[in-house]
Amino acid sequence: MRILLMEDDTVLREVVQRSLADAGHRVDAAGDLARGRHFWSVQAYDAVLLDLNLPLTGQSDCAQGSGLELLREHRRRGDRTPVLVLTARNRTEERIAGLDAGADDYLGKPFELAEVEARLRALARRSLGTEEVVSVGQLTLTRSLRRIQLAQDDLILPAREYEVLCELLSPPGRVISKKELAEKLSGFDDLLGDNALEAFISRLRKKLQGSGAGIRTLRGIGYLLEETRTC
Description:
Elements: E1 2-6, H1 10-22, E2 26-30, H2 33-42, E3 47-51, H3 66-76, E4 83-88, H4 92-101, E5 105-109, H5 113-128, E6 133-136, E7 139-142, E8 147-150, E9 153-154, H6 159-168, H7 178-184, H8 194-208, E10 213-218, E11 222-227
Parallel strand pairs: 1-2, 1-3, 3-4, 4-5
Antiparallel strand pairs: 6-7, 7-8, 8-9, 10-11
Helix pairs in contact: 6-8
């Protein structure tokens, strides 16, 4: 998943960002409203992790509470990106305000990192209509375990190939454009070029031969993972 993390606590932000990145997600992190607004305006995300008490800029003495207004802005524009709000555990009014503004779920601080990822996966499943376990032919993905199997044997893939295959399986049968796929797998300082993406697709096709799952190119449109006949 491509995730936007907005949290002004530097230590917490770095810990959560590292945890999500280690789990295979692409994470853009912002510590203030201006940076978070910029990221959200130029990039599409699978989920947003939002602290409501964001400073307007990177200065600690700036006005707080602006994350709530940012959420309202995007909902007014029709943006339905799943949003998980981070709140102080004992501040019920903050949780209510976030949900009323359009948040999909909330998580009280302090929290377990495993719960953050689990809730984000749940939000993405509801948004995309994806399941925890997905199978196409002899290919099976178990999302929470980050495990891909071919005919019940583990398929070990380099990180980028795994990310490409997961996107194509979210859900299978969905056409995803080359631009969308590249954006989800790129960072602002780590752009994935067309040649690299085509190379990943080519390698995956070879590894999926005979599995009953294949990647089809729709010229000028994008890629599609679908069930295929096996000989």
